[in-house]
Amino acid sequence: MVKFKKKSLSGSSKRWIQRHYNDSLVLKAKKEGFRSRAVFKLEEINKKINFLKTNQSIIDLGSAPGSWSQYLSKKGFKNILAVDVIKMEDLKEVSFIHGDFTDNNVQQKILERYKIINVVLSDIAVNTTGNKKLDSFKTNSICLDVLDFAYKNLCKEGYLLCKFFNGELDKEIIKYSKVNFSVNKIIKPKSSRKDSKEMYLFCKK
Ligand SMILES: C[S@@+](CC[C@H](N)C(=O)[O-])C[C@H]1O[C@@H](n2cnc3c(N)ncnc32)[C@H](O)[C@@H]1O
What we know:
The chain has 7 helices and 7 strands; from the N terminus they run H-H-H-E-H-E-E-H-E-H-E-H-E-E. The chain has 2 domains: 31 residues; 170 residues, Rossmann fold, CATH 3.40.50. The longest helix has 22 residues. By secondary structure, the protein is α/β, with parallel strands linked by helices. The radius of gyration is 17 Å and the shape is globular. Strands 3-2-1-4-5-7-6 form a 7-stranded mixed sheet, sandwiched between helices. The chain binds S-adenosylmethionine.
């Protein structure tokens, strides 16, 4: 068990760091060479739904530090385009756009890259401020942009997997997905922390 005694850290920061370092999935990700424990959420969801096929063109939104793209690249996917507001270290078979997904120029760059988009993945979450309402509002409003982008640009029978939070705007997200997609499932992977309000919405066009 790793313990942190640094005086400059607040109690909650110490607890977060301690929990992070002692989390078995953080340790497992490190051991298997993945950049984050988030990889196990994508793996678990795909085991359940089996929607990822190596010939698909995939957009990975909110990709950094990169474990979802890493997972896809290791599985043999060749057409992966990752996008994040923060820089991401290079990965084999992964192109990267450094920018804000909600920016029209960034969306234009994505559309220039692929004629056909088979899958949109989004693990986008804004930096937390401690104000839970505000945090879920900000992340969920980006989620609505992702849904709209996927609805307009996914190919027929294309898939969307998108993170959202239980809270502000979640009803709007579910309503949008029901109106515009033929399949919609809400998934809380076991690998997602129990105390986190994050959920994943899976849709088929
Ligand atoms: C939970 S992390 C994603 C982890 C990633 N799936 C992985 O496997 O490593 C959420 C990411 O969303 C990114 N993000 C937040 N707002 C964004 C935006 N407007 N456009 C693009 N990326 C954004 C953050 O910078 C952060 O890297």
